[in-house]
Amino acid sequence: LNEIGLVGKNFDVLDHAPVGMFVLQKDSVVLFWNNCLEYWTGIPRSEIVGTKIGDHFLHLNEPIYSSRLQVIFEGGPPAIFSSQLHGHIIPSPLPSGQLRIQHTAVTAVPSSDGEGFYALFAIQDVTDLTHLIEDYRAMRDQALEEARERKRAEDALWKQTRELSERVRQLNCLYGVANLLGIQGVSLDEMLHMTVELIPPACQHPEITCARITLEGQEFRTGNFRETIWKQAHDIAVYGERIGALEVCYLGERPERDEGLFLEGEKSLFSAVAEALGAVIEGKRVEDALRIRDSAIASSINAIAIADLEGNLTYVNRSFLKLWGYDSDKKVLGKHSVEFWQSEEKASEALEASRDGGSWMGELVARRKDGSLFDVQLSASVVRDEVGRPICMMTSCVDITERKRAEDALKRRNRELATLYEAATAISSNLSLSVVIQTVADQMTQALDSSGCALSLWDRKRGLVETLVDYSVDWPDGAEPLGTTYDLNDYPATRSVLETRHPMVIQCGDPMADVTELAWMEKEKVQTLLMLPLIARDQVLGLVELFDETEARDYTPEEIRLAQSLAAQAAIAIENARLYEQAQQEITERRRAEEALRERTAQLEAANKELEAFTYSVSHDLRAPLRSIDGFSLALLEDYADKLDEDGQDYLRRVRAASQRMAQLIEDLLKLSRLTRREMRRETVDLSTLAQEIVAELEQREPDRQVEFVVEEGVVTDGDAGLLRVVLENLLGNAWKFTTRHPRAMIEFGVTRHDGQAAYFVRDDGAGFDTAYADRLFGAFQRLHSEKEFEGTGIGLATVQRIIHRHGGRVWAEGAVGQGATFYFTL
Amino acid sequence: MYLKPYHIDALRELVNIGVGQAAGVLNQMLRSHIRLQVPHARVLSLSELKEEMEELGAETLSAVQLMFNGPSSGIASLAFPTDSAVKFVDILVGEESGIPDFDSIKIGTLTEVGNIVLNGVMGSIGNILNQRIGYSVPTYIEDSVKGLLGLGGPDPSTTVLWAQTRFTIEQYQITGDVILLFEMGSLDVLLATIDRELGEQS
Questions:
Q1: Does A64 touch chain B (CB under 8 A)?
Q2: What DSSP designation does A451 have?
Q3: Interface contact A236, partner B, CB < 8 A
Q4: 3-state SS class at A122
């Protein structure tokens, strides 16, 4: 209590300070409590002094206070409890009920005993200040908020402005496009060209924007177009089908990338433009289609008329007006459609039929404005709206007058062709000249419905025509062959027809006609005469004359054409018949010649056979007596040698030699005849091998001879091996023989070419021969050397020649006396 | 007095202890985790400090100052660049106005925080001196580096203990400077005491 009193005295001066002040002793007992605090808290000093502060204000017991106060009680530095962190150290309510906001400083004050320290709390009421600051803060915050708000508003406004200008640009573009689309007479190409140019200015960065429209292979682009990765593409579609695209590209990176590469507005602009283009193209197509349809109908060759359901005309095209002979549709429209026909009844029927049945097709006779009639092919149909209700009637007419005429002509032509065909068939069905001529006359008279027909042939050399047939329907037997001839000099008209090859019609009494002709016609009572040339293989054979006796007649071009066709057919048939007859004659002659030849051949063959038989039998029959002569001569020599002197013996030996030589001759003759008779067998023959075999035989026979053989290898041919062996035996044998006189000889066999044929040869360097006698070499029994010089019968080369001839070949020889010989043969 | 390396260590240790205590108080008071670190502490002349701090570039500083006198006299300051100081207070009281405005409420708060930090440092120095030191009530001052440090008197040889402190709250890091300006001879008293204490210990 002492202490309290002491402190109270010491701190008395603080009692009236406008600051809450109190003093704590180390144990938190309150030693001083000033007036201000009494006022603030309502706790009187008497009540609180001497008690622990924590008993009154529980929060002050918390360690945060006690620990910091501890420093104070130890004389440490002061402590500050700021209003923000410790605003209510000593809670004290204001009249308003709010607590005072306090700022507290605690300092150490030396205790009265001088040992320790008291803690002096000085509490400042900063409520007003705080409120002021808070108000200020609120105002400031509000101002800040307002500033922010203003900034936001400004930003928004700026953005809006920007968007608006964007929008304006885009609207400009759209307006431009719309304008373009609306302008009449601008072609689609021009429009697309201008549209693409409108795109970049509508974008936020026109300087780096380019655009392109592709449409069914065509391309429209801004001058700076280049495809980049910064691209926006929109399809252009017509009837839901993509036909092109609008592409927009940025050439460089966009300066600001706040909203993606392209602004939403831009994208919708591009899409709007693409859509609008699609719609316009669609519209244009529809328009084009309609225009085409309209002009197609208007300019159709068919006469087209549209009528209401009652049948009153509402539209007619140009062809209709032209066909019906009207100048303008004013006199036509509104009239009932049945008025334009010959028969209103039939027209009404057609109208009703098409109205009821939906369509009608058929032929009608139409009436022109001037009353003339013409044939029409008409098709009428009901035109309906989308839901199938009939709206109007439409008819389409074609003038078929021409067609009808053409049809008639065709029919006529067909008839003509049929006639022609019939006549031609009839005419060419026979090859007998007389029959052909009669048929021609018959057919032509019938086909041309004439009273008569004459057919004459032209003999140029004699300047005559010969009438072969004169046919008239009036005559009971029809055609009647004649043989009358006319001198053409008397009939210049006829001659003109033959020479000019043109048909000619002469009417009886024609002053321009030739008098001779007219006289003849008068005499024969011919009213009209038609003359036609008969031409075959470009040769005028003669002429046809057609008569009309009952009345004068005008030949139409078709009739003349028909007559010409028939005449041409007739000419060919006549020519054929003539050729045929000629051929027949030739064939007969040839047959006769062949027959004669055959007979002659048979005779020759018989003679040949006889000859051979004769040769054979002679040879045979001659040999028997020869054998007797030789045999008995030998018997004489052997058995009667002693009775014969030398001369007798010599004679006998000569008899024998002669008979033996004769036998040899006969033998060779037999051989020759056998060769002739023998049948040939052709096969492949190796001539080289054959020659070598023969050479070997020859050398064996006379081994002492010095002969050099040269045989070419591989000489092969086609022929009879046996006969060819005989040939080579003879030729090589001859060579061997005719070189006997030479100590050394050379014999050669080989093949060479002669006149493009293989020529085989045997060459020797022996005796040779004189070419003057060369043709005698191959005759039978012909010899160029005496038998004393070279033995032989003279049959060999004849045999060779015969064999070669049988092979169809040729044999010949070359050589000179003493210089050897060469034998050639071909096969 | 001649400054030995261990003096620096000891001084840094004293500052560390004080700051550590202050951190404990702040954490308790604010119920949010504040980390306080002292990356380095140096002893240098006032003119040197001026140069250093001017080099750091802060134009205006917000500082809480506490004057002390007794065996050792001088001024203890906790200084922040004003921007950092505002932000620091805002973080501490959970406000985020973002407006660099220093009104008296915020000044009060910064003063209390500075008071706690300086009290920690001065407490640990007072403890070692074990003599009565008088203190003024902490005050807030906002001035340029030059103005702030001019308080130390005209003597440029005034010794200064300069300790950078780093306050880490949530994801924020705020750096402030604890600056102790010792009056002529005051540091020597402290160093002598340190020598004595260390001598006693050894």
A1: yes
A2: S
A3: no
A4: strand
Q: Which residue has the higher pLDDT, A487 or A163?
A: A487
H or E segment and range at residue A488: none
Tell me whether residues A77 and B122 touch, CB distance under 8 A. Answer: yes
User: Of how many residues is chain B composed?
Assistant: 202
On chain A, the residues whose CB falls within 8 A of the CB of B137 are: 78, 80, 105, 107
Closest residue of chain B to A63, computed from CA coordinates: B28
Q: Which single residue is written with the structure tokens 């039939």? A: A346
Number of cross-chain residue pairs from A and B with Cβ atoms under 8 Å apart:
80
Give residue A189's identity as a one-letter amino acid code. D
> pTM of the prediction?
0.42
Q: Which residue of A has its CA nearest to B106?
A: A84
| Pairing mode, strands A706-711 and B134-135 | unpaired
Measured between alpha carbons, how far is A700 from A677 in angstroms, rounded to an integer?
32
Q: Are the beta carbons of B138 and B114 closer than 8 angstroms?
A: yes
CB-based contact (8 Å) between B125 and chain A? no
Residue holding tokens 């004389």?
A: A75
Q: Tokens 């048939």 sit at which residue?
A: A573
- Name the residue in chain B with its Cα closest to that of A78: B137
Those residues whose C-beta lies under 8 Å from the C-beta of residue A266, and which sit 6 or more positions away, are: A166, A170, A202, A203, A204, A232, A248
B105 touching A, CB under 8 A? yes
Query: For residues B134 and B112, what is the distance between their CA atoms, to the nearest angstrom?
Result: 19
Q: What angle do CA A150, A152, A153 make, to 5 degrees?
A: 60
Give residues with Cβ within 8 angstroms of A614, minimum separation 6. none
Residues of A in Cβ contact (< 8 Å) with B96: none
Give the nearest chain B residue to A103 (CA atoms): B108
Does the beta-carbon distance from B123 to A71 stay under 8 Å?
A: yes
B32 touches chain A (CB under 8 A): no
Assess A80–B contact: CB distance below 8 Å, yes or no.
yes
Q: Which of A66, A67, A82 to mutate to test the interface with B (most CBs of B within 10 A)?
A: A82
Residue that the structure tokens 């006829």 belong to: A494
Which structure tokens are listed for A284? 């244009």
Cα separation, A266 vs A264, in Å, equals 5
Query: Which range (A393-402, A654-663, A672-681, A755-764) has the least confidence?
Result: A672-681
CA angle A755, A761, A764 (to 5 degrees): 135
| Per-residue pLDDT tens digits for B137-191 | 899 988 888 777 775 565 666 788 888 888 888 778 888 888 888 877 788 888 8
Give the whole-angstrom CA distance, residue A777 versus residue A782.
6
Q: How many helices (DSSP H) and strands (DSSP E) are in chain A?
A: 19, 28
Nearest to A85 among B66, B112, B135 (CB): B112
Whole-angstrom Cα distance, residue B119 to residue B26? 12
pLDDT digits over A468-501, tens only?
A: 787 776 665 655 567 778 888 888 888 889 989 9
Does an H or E element contain B172, and which?
strand B172-182
* DSSP letter string, A715-769: -EEEE-HHHHHHHHHHHHHHHHHHTTTSSEEEEEEEEEEETTEEEEEEEE-SS--
Long-range contacts of A160-164 (CB under 8 A, 24+ apart): A163/A265
Asked whether the beta carbons of residue B115 and residue A79 sit closer than 8 angstroms, the reply is yes
Residue in chain B lying closest to A75 (CA): B132
Q: For residue A108, list chain B residues with Cβ-Cβ distance below 8 A.
A: 135
Residue A487 contacts residue A462 (beta carbons within 8 Å):
no
**Distance between CA atoms of residues A781 and A792, nearest Å:** 9
Angle in degrees, 0-180, between the axes of helices A401-428 and A433-447, rounded to the nearest 10: 160
Strand partners, A367: A373
Tokens matching residue A635: 């018997």
pLDDT digits 0-9 by tens, B89-122: 888 877 766 666 778 888 888 999 999 999 888 8
Distances A108 to A69, A78, A90 between C-alpha atoms, Å: 9, 7, 19
